[in-house]
Structures are given as C-alpha cells and as structure tokens.
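ARCHIVE RECORD
Type: protein–small molecule complex
Small molecule: 1,3-dihydroxyacetonephosphate
Source of inputs: curated submission
Record status: active
Notes field left blank by submitter.
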Amino acid sequence: MIQQRISDLKARRNAIILVHNYQPPEIQDIADFCGDSLELSIRAAETDADVIVFCGVHFMAETASIVCPDKTVLLPDFNAGCPMADMITPQALAAKLKELGDMPVVTYVNSPAAVKAMSTVCCTSANVVKVVNSLEEKEILMTPDRNLATYAQGYTDKTLHLWPGWCPVHDALRPEDIETARRDHPGALVMAHPECRPEVTALADAVLSTSGMLRHAAESDRTEFIVATENGILYPLQKACPDKRFYWASESMVCPDMKKIGLADVAACLETLAPEVKVPREIQQKALAAVQRMLEIV
Ligand code: 13P
Ligand code: SF4
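STRUCTURE (tokenized, with ligand):
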C-alpha cells in the first residue's frame, strides 16, 4: 500500500509531512500536521526533521525554506504555484515604492521570497490586523492581495495602499452566491476567507483564515455553516465536527494548484529527494527577517 511506503520512506529520511487545509483528503490523511499558512510556517520553524515534505503550493514551501535554510524542503509537484503570488515581482515593488515614497511594506505570505526580502514584515490571513497595527507608521503598502488589505483597512486607522493582486478562486465569488447559499440553508452561519471581495466579506458572519474556520466551527453552538473559501476545507471541517453540516458558498471555489499533489508524488519525492525548493542565501536572510518579525507578533 502506498501509504505504508510513504511511512517507511519518511522514517528512513527523518522527514515530516506538512499539509495545507485545502489539499486532497488522501494527502491530509498522511499529514504529520495539517494547518493554515501561519501554523505551517510555525511548524516548519520548530521541526527537528531533516526533510520537510510540503504538500501545498510553492510559496508555502519557500517559506519553509526561509525559516529552515539548512533543511531539505520538498514540494512533491513543482508546478503547484499560486497565481496571486505571481502578481508581484521585486522590480514592480521597487517601482511602486519609488512612486509612493518610502514606507513600510506588509507582504502577505502568498508572495515570492524575493518580495518578502524587500518587505518590512510578512502577514497571513490569520494575523493581518495584528501585523498592520504593530507598525508605528501611519502609511503602509500592503502587497499583493488587495482584498486582504481592504479587509485589514476596516480594523485600522492607518492608510493602507493596495497592490492590485488577488486570488482568482476567492475573488470570483459574488454576493449573489452568498445570498443563494443562505436561501438554500437558512440559519447557517457564513464563514468567509479575507481573500474574498469586500462585498462578500460584508455579508459573512465571520471572516477567518482556514484554521480559524476550523476552530470557529468547533467552538460555535451553531450546527450549520456556509463556507466561502477553497472547497478542500470542507474535508477537515467535516472531520473535526462530524455532527455539524458544512456547505460550500460556490462549487466553483476550487484551486487547481492545491489539487496537483498525489500520493505517488509524495512517495517519489521522498525516494529521490526532489523537487527541492531552496531560497538563495542572500534572499533567504532578508526574507527571514520579515517572516521572523511576523512570528514574533503572533
Ligand atoms: P490560509 O493561510 O488561511 O490557510 O490561506 C492560504 C491561502 O492560500 C488561501 O487561499
Ligand atoms: Fe493562491 Fe488562491 Fe490557490 Fe490560495 S486558493 S493558493 S491564494 S490561488
């Protein structure tokens, strides 16, 4: 059985398998730890394994490589990227800062390592408000997600300058989708990810990271939930709360990049120790300062 082979290889390599909440069920089932971007970067920073198998997308494996430069970080399918992370480059960021004047840059972890290296501090969907309010300056450039920045703007008196980036999966959700889901499931509580458009988050009962949704659903006395994020989250939600019911806000909320990794890819990468994600030392050290500053805030 392939799961047994993965387990044997994992022991042989002294490896840990970190898995994002959107990954396919069979990948979540072989995880040493499953979580949101923030929890996964904390776990990567803490592990004493030699090899980290990162089942998620490229920027997440890069973040693991930033916090663990001496470990082997494997991304079982090297083509698993994030279109939002590709909406910013170091050159474009430098040009924007020239235009706006010097100011702190808060960069969402869904970004390339070279952009993190130019940033003051990173943030995730779980800590964006805390990170923004931790800065002394009154004006901040937020990259690359305009929706996350707009969400944070609602919880700060600072002026946030937005970068024109977005997640194609979350940004496609419309208020009408929430209204239809509410009509179909009256009484259900709506949880939305802050990557959704402001007109969508305005209709939600709670705006949360993926693991925030897992905690909120477990702690709530409500029994039915409409979930406005990538649909892979329904599997851990249902697993954590078997007596509650979860409905997607739209069946089209599927991130193709999060579905690329299969069990055979995990076994193969443990066998060959490839494909490896390695951030060049100079970028890694600068990016680490921005990631570490974030980790000290939460
Ligand atoms: P979380 O950090 O909330 O898990 O989100 C990651 C992501 O890519 C959302 O699209
Ligand atoms: Fe990127 Fe969106 Fe996929 Fe998350 S869901 S990995 S932000 S494309």
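CURATOR ANNOTATION: The chain has a mean pLDDT of 98.
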